[in-house]
Design goal:
Shape: globular
Number of helices: 13
GO molecular function, one term: acetyl-CoA C-acyltransferase activity
Keywords: Acyltransferase, Transferase
Pfam families: Thiolase_C, Thiolase_N
Strand content: 15-25%
Distance between the termini: 18 Å
Order of helices and strands: EEHEHEHEHHHHHEHEHEHHHEE
Largest sheet: 10 strands, mixed
Family: Belongs to the thiolase-like superfamily. Thiolase family.
Structural class: alpha/beta
InterPro entries: Thiolase, Thiolase-like, Thiolase_C, Thiolase_CS, Thiolase_N
Length: 395
């Protein structure tokens, strides 16, 4: 990606909090979301040495923008982090891909010459602001014309995951094997210190709280289906009811922040870029099978980049549910051995608005640790959408 006067967009810093359990009693439940985001911003400034006064904008993802996450949390967090009041901030919602979209917007702004220095990130405290909090009793966020178009009605994400498992012929054992491996990889990465450079401990939490090192297929097999519903069972007789809490991403709290600039500005500041944002895209997909957008998003971003699957050294595919990644691998032909190599959201957690930046932070570090060149990140999003981003590690 090169734009105004040949400018590119590079990542010069990336940091995230450990991910906490997204329920009362979780390690980060006592931290207000604005403070959670402010922590990542402060750590990013400390680690890169960037002067906050030079930051042109802060773009943060947050999905449930209500209650403790209302009133433009990006602006509130940056002021809480001590940035000058001259620094603006804005909050975006592209559902689970909100902070990946924030990274895309930031990169596009740098390439266009609208920004020199911009921070993209995200936050979600699911323990303090539960999913669905933004839909008020009696409200209708879809409208009558939407209802007329989808007269049979759409379904919750858990039912979409069940439909995907059925359509792609994925067995409960396959889902649980994938999920157990996610925990094992994340536990090993934690033990080996592979997350150390990206983590910014907070509230006494040093490492990701949700990872269960002892997870096995046998323990997951004992869990009951999480989304069984008689009405949906009658409507979709093909569903085998295989989605459980063990092969789904857990409710989570966390934040992450990424500093993006151009190669030219990075040189002036003496920063060594971690990676170049090579290509970005976003797609819409069937809102009934709303989690399958990662398949066309991967195909589209590769075509735009002029690359093939064989060129990609590491993949990060958000593990909203196990069938999302497994159906993606089946359709694209991508190598699961190169996918989520340090574990994914099933083990680490999925703090909605923060996940895109969290995954990018992990991907940048993993690519450097393995001396790879290209990394591809993609994630499904509520309503039937998906972002995809290719980054290139710079030697």
């Amino acid at each position: 990606m090169a734009g105004y006067a040949g400018r590119d967009a590079v990542i010069v810093g990336a940091v995230r909090t450990p991910i906490g359990k997204g329920k009362p009693g979780g390690a980060l439940h006592g931290v207000l979301p604005a403070d959670l985001m402010a922590h990542s911003l402060t750590e990013l400034v400390t680690r890169t040495g960037v002067d906050p006064a030079e930051v042109d904008d802060v773009i943060a993802g947050a999905v449930s923008q209500v209650g403790d996450q209302a009133v433009n949390i990006a602006r509130n967090a940056l002021l809480g982090a001590g940035f000058p009041d001259t620094v603006p901030g804005t909050t975006v919602d592209r559902q689970c891909g909100s902070s990946q979209q924030a990274i895309s917007f930031a990169a596009q702004g740098v390439i266009a010459g609208a920004y020199d220095l911009v921070i993209a990130g995200g936050v979600e405290s699911m323990s303090r602001v539960p999913m669905g909090s933004t839909v008020l009793p009696g409200s209708d966020p879809f409208g009558t014309r939407f209802a007329e178009r989808y007269s049979e009605g759409l379904v919750p994400q858990g039912i979409s995951a069940e439909l995907i498992a059925a359509r792609w012929g994925l067995s409960r054992t396959q889902l649980d094997e994938f999920s157990a491996a996610s925990h094992q990889k994340a536990a090993q990465a934690t033990k080996d210190g592979l997350f150390d450079t990206e983590l910014a401990p907070i509230a006494g939490l040093q490492y990701d709280e949700i990872i269960r090192p002892g997870t096995t297929v046998e323990t997951l097999a004992g869990l009951k289906p999480a989304f069984y519903n008689e009405a949906y069972a009658a409507r979709f007789p093909q569903i085998n009811w295989e989605i459980t809490p063990g092969n789904s991403s857990p409710l989570s709290d966390g934040s992450a922040a990424v500093l993006i600039t151009s190669s030219e500005v990075a040189r002036k500041h003496g920063w060594k870029p971690l990676a170049r944002i090579h290509t970005t895209t976003v797609v819409g997909s069937d809102p009934l099978y709303m989690l399958t957008g990662v398949i066309p998003a991967t195909e589209k971003v590769l075509a735009r980049a002029g690359l093939t699957l064989a060129d990609i050294d590491l993949f990060e595919v958000n593990e909203a549910f196990a069938p999302v990644v497994l159906s993606w691998a089946k359709d694209t032909g991508a190598d699961l051995a190169k996918t989520n190599v340090n574990g994914g959201a099933i083990a680490i957690g999925h703090p909605l608005g923060a996940s895109g930046a969290r995954i990018m932070t992990t991907l940048v570090n993993a690519l450097g640790q393995r001396r790879g060149r290209y990394g591809l990140q993609t994630m499904c999003e509520g309503g039937g959408m998906a972002n995809a981003t290719i980054i290139e590690r710079l030697a």
